[in-house]
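Ticket reopened. Same input as before:
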Amino acid sequence: EAAVTQSPRSKVAVTGGKVTLSCHQTNNHDYMYWYRQDTGHGLRLIHYSYVADSTEKGDIPDGYKASRPSQENFSLILELASLSQTAVYFCASSVQNQAPLFGEGTRLSVL
Amino acid sequence: GDSVTQTEGQVALSEEDFLTIHCNYSASGYPALFWYVQYPGEGPQFLFRASRDKEKGSSRGFEATYNKEATSFHLQKASVQESDSAVYYCALSDLSSGQKLVFGQGTILKVYL
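Engineering reply: fixed in the latest deploy. New output:
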């Protein structure tokens, strides 16, 4: 069964610290995405990738980096976490002409 | 840039009521339109999509019709159940840019017995 697995499921980080959110899929999907969910904003695209070793900026990339070391893995990196980055983060994967499949999310609290 | 607007932030209904959630979009191209549903503690789940004008998408009793002239893709269900309580998202994707989704703000649906 197709699945997207995110880790950790929740995390508390300190302001200024480094945070890495991980995403793993075994669906043989080429496309992977990171979205951020905030109340009143829906989901917004941070970074995405169409192929391993290549990432692209989405609509709100500031303060975030992404890494795609293999087809299966896609990480989101917050080098200097800030209070404003408290949110729920979702990873998704897809192939061309197929609706993206989402993971269960990572709840990040920056204190 | 492209955008999606959902008119209702929250909808409260009784079981067996008729549901409409309004979705309007703005896009420079000819996008595909999607509905996703999200239950508490889970990620968004794909409900259905439509890619052409007048195409109807449907799943689990929900349906929506692509209206290019009105730039709309309104979600409807004839008779809601308590189990339909969730957050519903309308989204679009410009097919020329892969499957990147632009989401609306979401609509919280609460169905009471």
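The interface with chain B takes residues 4, 31, 33, 35, 40-45, 48, 50, 58-59, 90, 92, 94, 96-105 of chain A (CB under 8 Å). The two ends of chain A are 37 Å apart (CA to CA). Please confirm and we'll close it.
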